[in-house]
Specification:
It is a single chain. The chain has about 260 residues and is an alpha+beta fold. The protein contains 6 helices and 12 strands. It folds into 2 domains: about 100 residues, Pseudouridine synthase; about 130 residues, Pseudouridine synthase (2-Layer Sandwich), CATH 3.30.2350. Strands 1, 2, 3, 4, 5, 8, 9, 10, 11 and 12 form a 10-stranded mixed sheet that branches. A hairpin with a 2-residue loop joins β6 and β7. It starts with 5 loop residues before the first strand and ends with a strand.
Amino acid sequence: MNNTITILSEDEEIIVIDKPAGMIVNRAETTKGVLTVQDWAEEKIGINEQELDFNDALEYDPVREFFNRGGVVHRLDKETSGVLLLAKNPETFVALQKQFKERTVKKVYRAFAHGRIKPEAGEIDVPVGRLPWNRNRFGILPGGRESKTLYKVLQYYQQEKPKEILSYVELYPQSGRTHQIRVHLKYINHPIFSDFLYAGRKTSRTDRQVLPRVFLHAAKITFFHPITNREVSFESPLPDELSDVLQQFTPIPMI
Protein backbone atom coordinates (compact mmCIF):
# COMPACT_ATOMS: atom_id res chain seq x y z
CA MET A 1 0.00 0.00 0.00
CA ASN A 2 1.26 3.48 -0.88
CA ASN A 3 0.24 7.10 -1.22
CA THR A 4 1.12 7.47 -4.88
CA ILE A 5 -1.80 8.79 -6.93
CA THR A 6 -1.75 8.05 -10.66
CA ILE A 7 -3.65 10.37 -12.99
CA LEU A 8 -5.54 8.29 -15.55
CA SER A 9 -6.94 11.29 -17.44
CA GLU A 10 -7.13 15.05 -17.06
CA ASP A 11 -8.67 17.94 -18.96
CA GLU A 12 -9.93 21.42 -18.07
CA GLU A 13 -12.97 20.03 -16.23
CA ILE A 14 -12.10 16.70 -14.61
CA ILE A 15 -9.30 14.58 -13.22
CA VAL A 16 -9.66 10.81 -13.16
CA ILE A 17 -7.25 9.19 -10.72
CA ASP A 18 -6.23 5.70 -9.67
CA LYS A 19 -6.56 5.72 -5.87
CA PRO A 20 -4.17 3.40 -4.03
CA ALA A 21 -5.45 1.17 -1.24
CA GLY A 22 -4.82 2.57 2.21
CA MET A 23 -5.46 6.19 1.24
CA ILE A 24 -8.45 7.98 2.78
CA VAL A 25 -10.55 10.00 0.32
CA ASN A 26 -11.97 12.88 2.36
CA ARG A 27 -10.38 14.81 5.18
CA ALA A 28 -11.89 14.54 8.68
CA GLU A 29 -11.00 15.16 12.32
CA THR A 30 -9.45 11.70 12.48
CA THR A 31 -7.17 12.25 9.45
CA LYS A 32 -4.94 14.98 10.87
CA GLY A 33 -1.36 14.46 9.77
CA VAL A 34 -2.43 11.96 7.09
CA LEU A 35 -2.38 12.76 3.37
CA THR A 36 -5.86 12.28 1.89
CA VAL A 37 -7.09 12.39 -1.70
CA GLN A 38 -8.80 15.65 -0.79
CA ASP A 39 -5.49 17.20 0.31
CA TRP A 40 -3.86 16.10 -2.94
CA ALA A 41 -6.79 17.39 -5.02
CA GLU A 42 -6.88 20.78 -3.33
CA GLU A 43 -3.22 21.33 -4.10
CA LYS A 44 -3.54 19.97 -7.64
CA ILE A 45 -6.65 22.00 -8.51
CA GLY A 46 -5.66 25.05 -6.49
CA ILE A 47 -8.76 25.11 -4.33
CA ASN A 48 -6.90 26.56 -1.34
CA GLU A 49 -6.34 29.71 -3.37
CA GLN A 50 -10.05 30.41 -3.23
CA GLU A 51 -11.25 32.55 -0.32
CA LEU A 52 -14.97 32.00 0.02
CA ASP A 53 -17.07 32.38 3.15
CA PHE A 54 -20.05 30.07 3.48
CA ASN A 55 -20.72 30.64 7.18
CA ASP A 56 -24.07 32.26 6.46
CA ALA A 57 -25.24 29.46 4.18
CA LEU A 58 -27.69 27.39 6.19
CA GLU A 59 -29.07 25.23 3.37
CA TYR A 60 -27.24 22.78 1.14
CA ASP A 61 -25.07 24.66 -1.31
CA PRO A 62 -23.44 22.59 -4.09
CA VAL A 63 -20.74 25.21 -4.59
CA ARG A 64 -19.88 25.08 -0.90
CA GLU A 65 -19.87 21.28 -1.14
CA PHE A 66 -17.33 21.46 -3.97
CA PHE A 67 -14.93 23.44 -1.78
CA ASN A 68 -15.65 21.39 1.36
CA ARG A 69 -14.85 18.15 -0.48
CA GLY A 70 -11.93 19.39 -2.55
CA GLY A 71 -13.68 18.54 -5.80
CA VAL A 72 -14.03 14.86 -4.90
CA VAL A 73 -17.25 13.76 -6.61
CA HIS A 74 -17.73 10.33 -4.98
CA ARG A 75 -15.98 8.09 -2.47
CA LEU A 76 -14.09 4.83 -2.18
CA ASP A 77 -13.39 3.04 1.11
CA LYS A 78 -9.90 3.49 2.52
CA GLU A 79 -8.76 -0.03 1.56
CA THR A 80 -10.49 -0.01 -1.84
CA SER A 81 -8.30 0.91 -4.80
CA GLY A 82 -9.22 2.14 -8.25
CA VAL A 83 -10.93 4.78 -10.34
CA LEU A 84 -12.01 7.99 -8.60
CA LEU A 85 -13.48 11.08 -10.23
CA LEU A 86 -12.56 14.67 -9.32
CA ALA A 87 -14.10 17.92 -10.56
CA LYS A 88 -11.97 21.01 -11.18
CA ASN A 89 -14.74 23.57 -10.67
CA PRO A 90 -18.13 23.85 -8.94
CA GLU A 91 -20.14 23.65 -12.16
CA THR A 92 -18.56 20.36 -13.18
CA PHE A 93 -18.89 19.05 -9.63
CA VAL A 94 -22.62 19.76 -9.64
CA ALA A 95 -23.11 18.23 -13.10
CA LEU A 96 -21.29 15.03 -12.17
CA GLN A 97 -23.04 14.67 -8.81
CA LYS A 98 -26.35 14.99 -10.67
CA GLN A 99 -25.37 12.01 -12.81
CA PHE A 100 -24.60 9.97 -9.69
CA LYS A 101 -27.94 10.90 -8.14
CA GLU A 102 -29.77 10.01 -11.35
CA ARG A 103 -27.77 6.74 -11.55
CA THR A 104 -26.52 7.29 -15.07
CA VAL A 105 -22.93 6.67 -13.91
CA LYS A 106 -21.89 3.05 -14.48
CA LYS A 107 -19.32 1.53 -12.14
CA VAL A 108 -17.54 -1.81 -12.34
CA TYR A 109 -15.73 -3.43 -9.41
CA ARG A 110 -13.64 -6.56 -9.06
CA ALA A 111 -13.60 -8.63 -5.86
CA PHE A 112 -12.31 -11.97 -4.61
CA ALA A 113 -14.93 -13.65 -2.45
CA HIS A 114 -15.07 -16.72 -0.25
CA GLY A 115 -17.01 -19.71 -1.55
CA ARG A 116 -18.43 -20.70 -4.93
CA ILE A 117 -20.96 -18.02 -5.85
CA LYS A 118 -23.99 -19.54 -7.54
CA PRO A 119 -25.62 -18.73 -9.87
CA GLU A 120 -22.65 -17.41 -11.81
CA ALA A 121 -24.56 -14.22 -12.67
CA GLY A 122 -27.35 -12.54 -10.77
CA GLU A 123 -28.41 -9.65 -8.60
CA ILE A 124 -28.54 -8.82 -4.90
CA ASP A 125 -31.39 -6.47 -4.04
CA VAL A 126 -31.71 -5.80 -0.30
CA PRO A 127 -31.76 -2.57 1.77
CA VAL A 128 -28.52 -1.43 3.40
CA GLY A 129 -28.27 0.72 6.51
CA ARG A 130 -25.88 1.66 9.31
CA LEU A 131 -26.06 -0.77 12.24
CA PRO A 132 -27.51 0.99 15.31
CA TRP A 133 -25.30 -1.05 17.66
CA ASN A 134 -22.07 -0.48 15.65
CA ARG A 135 -21.83 2.84 13.82
CA ASN A 136 -18.74 1.72 11.89
CA ARG A 137 -20.55 -1.12 10.16
CA PHE A 138 -23.47 -1.48 7.80
CA GLY A 139 -25.88 -4.34 7.28
CA ILE A 140 -29.17 -5.48 5.80
CA LEU A 141 -31.88 -3.62 7.69
CA PRO A 142 -35.66 -3.43 7.11
CA GLY A 143 -35.46 0.35 7.36
CA GLY A 144 -32.30 0.59 5.28
CA ARG A 145 -31.92 2.35 1.96
CA GLU A 146 -32.79 0.56 -1.26
CA SER A 147 -29.70 -0.91 -2.89
CA LYS A 148 -28.99 -3.29 -5.74
CA THR A 149 -25.81 -4.95 -7.04
CA LEU A 150 -25.52 -7.03 -10.22
CA TYR A 151 -22.66 -9.50 -10.47
CA LYS A 152 -20.90 -11.99 -12.74
CA VAL A 153 -18.36 -14.62 -11.68
CA LEU A 154 -15.23 -14.41 -13.83
CA GLN A 155 -13.33 -17.39 -12.43
CA TYR A 156 -13.41 -19.89 -9.59
CA TYR A 157 -10.23 -20.65 -7.69
CA GLN A 158 -9.23 -23.40 -5.27
CA GLN A 159 -7.20 -22.98 -2.12
CA GLU A 160 -5.47 -26.02 -0.66
CA LYS A 161 -4.87 -24.92 2.95
CA PRO A 162 -7.46 -24.43 4.24
CA LYS A 163 -9.26 -26.24 1.43
CA GLU A 164 -11.80 -23.84 -0.05
CA ILE A 165 -13.29 -22.58 -3.32
CA LEU A 166 -13.19 -18.82 -3.93
CA SER A 167 -14.84 -16.66 -6.58
CA TYR A 168 -13.26 -13.86 -8.61
CA VAL A 169 -16.28 -11.72 -9.40
CA GLU A 170 -17.16 -8.57 -11.30
CA LEU A 171 -19.81 -6.36 -9.72
CA TYR A 172 -22.02 -3.60 -11.07
CA PRO A 173 -23.60 -1.54 -8.27
CA GLN A 174 -26.87 0.08 -9.30
CA SER A 175 -26.85 2.32 -6.22
CA GLY A 176 -24.09 3.90 -4.17
CA ARG A 177 -24.60 2.99 -0.53
CA THR A 178 -21.65 2.96 1.87
CA HIS A 179 -20.06 -0.53 2.03
CA GLN A 180 -22.77 -1.75 -0.38
CA ILE A 181 -20.75 -4.39 -2.23
CA ARG A 182 -19.08 -5.63 0.95
CA VAL A 183 -22.42 -5.95 2.76
CA HIS A 184 -24.21 -7.53 -0.21
CA LEU A 185 -21.58 -10.23 -0.64
CA LYS A 186 -21.63 -10.90 3.09
CA TYR A 187 -25.44 -11.18 2.89
CA ILE A 188 -25.21 -14.04 0.36
CA ASN A 189 -22.58 -15.73 2.56
CA HIS A 190 -19.66 -14.92 0.25
CA PRO A 191 -17.72 -12.18 2.08
CA ILE A 192 -14.80 -10.51 0.35
CA PHE A 193 -11.34 -11.91 0.94
CA SER A 194 -9.52 -10.07 3.74
CA ASP A 195 -12.54 -7.94 4.66
CA PHE A 196 -11.86 -7.14 8.32
CA LEU A 197 -15.40 -5.83 8.92
CA TYR A 198 -17.56 -8.43 7.21
CA ALA A 199 -15.62 -11.67 6.66
CA GLY A 200 -15.48 -12.65 10.32
CA ARG A 201 -12.59 -12.19 12.72
CA LYS A 202 -10.97 -15.61 12.26
CA THR A 203 -11.36 -15.67 8.48
CA SER A 204 -10.10 -12.14 7.95
CA ARG A 205 -7.14 -12.72 10.25
CA THR A 206 -6.13 -15.73 8.15
CA ASP A 207 -6.73 -13.81 4.90
CA ARG A 208 -4.60 -10.92 6.04
CA GLN A 209 -1.58 -13.15 6.32
CA VAL A 210 -1.87 -13.31 2.51
CA LEU A 211 -3.27 -9.83 1.77
CA PRO A 212 -3.29 -6.91 4.26
CA ARG A 213 -6.22 -5.11 2.56
CA VAL A 214 -9.73 -5.81 1.34
CA PHE A 215 -9.72 -7.44 -2.12
CA LEU A 216 -12.01 -4.87 -3.72
CA HIS A 217 -11.04 -2.74 -6.72
CA ALA A 218 -12.94 -0.05 -8.63
CA ALA A 219 -12.01 -1.19 -12.12
CA LYS A 220 -14.04 1.08 -14.41
CA ILE A 221 -16.29 4.14 -14.46
CA THR A 222 -18.49 5.38 -17.31
CA PHE A 223 -20.28 8.72 -17.37
CA PHE A 224 -21.22 11.61 -19.65
CA HIS A 225 -18.58 14.31 -19.92
CA PRO A 226 -20.11 17.51 -18.51
CA ILE A 227 -18.94 19.65 -21.46
CA THR A 228 -19.13 17.39 -24.52
CA ASN A 229 -22.00 15.28 -23.15
CA ARG A 230 -20.31 12.27 -24.75
CA GLU A 231 -20.14 9.01 -22.84
CA VAL A 232 -16.59 8.36 -21.63
CA SER A 233 -15.04 5.43 -19.78
CA PHE A 234 -11.89 5.09 -17.72
CA GLU A 235 -10.31 1.92 -16.37
CA SER A 236 -7.83 1.02 -13.67
CA PRO A 237 -5.83 -2.21 -14.00
CA LEU A 238 -5.86 -4.64 -11.10
CA PRO A 239 -3.04 -3.63 -8.71
CA ASP A 240 -0.04 -5.92 -8.46
CA GLU A 241 -0.81 -6.90 -4.86
CA LEU A 242 -4.22 -8.21 -5.95
CA SER A 243 -2.93 -9.95 -9.06
CA ASP A 244 -0.28 -11.63 -6.93
CA VAL A 245 -2.97 -13.03 -4.64
CA LEU A 246 -4.82 -14.63 -7.55
CA GLN A 247 -1.55 -16.24 -8.63
CA GLN A 248 -1.41 -18.08 -5.31
CA PHE A 249 -4.64 -19.96 -6.05
CA THR A 250 -5.49 -22.59 -8.64
CA PRO A 251 -8.11 -21.72 -11.31
CA ILE A 252 -10.80 -24.39 -11.64
CA PRO A 253 -13.41 -25.02 -14.35
CA MET A 254 -16.62 -22.99 -14.39
CA ILE A 255 -19.14 -25.81 -13.94
